[in-house]
Amino acid sequence: MKVGAIIQARMSSTRLPGKVLKELPYNSGITVLEQVIRRLKKSKNLKKIVVATTTEKSDKVIINIAKKENIRCFRGSKEDVLSRYYFAAKENDLDVVVRITGDCPCVDPEIVDLIITKHIEAEADFTTNCFKRTYPHGLDVESFNFNILKEAHANAHNAYEKEHVTPHIYGNPNVYNIIQVEAPRDLYAPKIRITLDTEEDYALLCVIFDHLYIKNEYFNAYDIVNLFKEKPWLCLINKKSLQKKAYNSFKEECQQAIKALDLHGLKRVSNFLRKQLNEDHNLNRRR
After folding, report:
1. Is the separation of the CB atoms in 87 and 73 below 8 Å?
2. Which of 2, 56, 99, 147 is close enough to 142 for a disulfide, judged by CB 3.0 to 4.6 Å?
């Protein structure tokens, strides 16, 4: 059984363009993407690592990083990330795909191996630690079988299903055997955010690497959680950053928009939007 990680990465991020080329530690010459790749190389269960990027000219730099790190690279659709994953997995003859995003430079290979082991032992179709948030944001791992990825590629039609790869799979729990892996008590830290979407996220990651990287280049999840216990003020650095995700309805998007508006003190607009949602809800109940 060939188990491989596919790292999705591109230069044209909407919120922080070129984020995978940010350096960690700061001014070290080591990019975020290189940190992700090097950490995944420490996994005992991964047989192959592939970077899946787009056919855009700007993503040539990502191909160069993959070559430098001596791993495979695949170029596919910019918008249809699901097809990018499918064809990358097919080209590399993967039986089990581990989905990793290129903006998670703290990815822990031990957690990756745990997800893979749980997935294989349970004979699951899809295994994740993301549904019920128990681990910090940024230690996310999804594992799924190639035949399930093939079905999703054939049957997913909505734009959000194609952009976020796995919604078609976890959206059909009656069809697929789905396993949720929760963090042990010592790693339970759902409020910690160590992924990279904003400048504030980058500032926090720079602090984390300044404290931990000098002691151990491959610091793990326990090191991170313990650092936050020692310095709880770290959470304040990117407190206003919200996790980007797919939403199944207009109502869910509005609710997330209200959270963002409230975080930035735009109360009049958030109250207006909240009022509109309540009016729509009451109207639907009367019908």
Report:
1. no
2. 99
Task: Confirm whether 52 is domain-assigned.
Answer: yes
Question: Does residue 165 share a domain with residue 97?
Answer: yes
The CB-based long-range contact list for 226-235 (8 Å cut-off, 24+ gap) reads 228/189, 228/192, 234/204, 234/207, 234/208, 235/191, 235/192, 235/193
- Could you read off the pLDDT of 133-165 as tens digits, one per residue? 999 999 999 999 999 999 999 999 888 899 999
Domain identity same for 108 and 130: yes
Residue 19 lies in a domain: yes
What six digits make up the tokens of 139?
């230690």
Supply the CATH number for residue 62's domain: 3.90.550.10
> How do strand 96-101 and strand 48-54 relate by DSSP bridges?
unpaired
Whether 219 and 269 share a structural domain: no
Domain that holds residue 256: 250-286
pTM: 0.85
pLDDT in tens, 178-218: 999 999 999 999 999 999 999 999 999 999 999 999 999 99
Q: b/e map of 200-239 (b: 16 or more CB within 10 Å)?
A: bbbebbbebbebbbeeeeebbbebbbbbbeeeeebeebbe
What lies within 8 Å, CB to CB, of 253 at 6+ separation is 247
Task: Indicate if 42 and 134 belong to the same structural domain.
Answer: yes
Based on its alpha-carbon atoms, the radius of gyration of the chain, rounded to whole angstroms, reads: 19
Residue whose token pair is 């997913």: 156
User: Which has the closest alpha carbon to 4: 63, 70, 90, 64?
Assistant: 90
Same domain, 11 and 148: yes
> Two tokens at 169?
């799979």
Statement to judge: residues 141 and 27 lie in one domain: yes
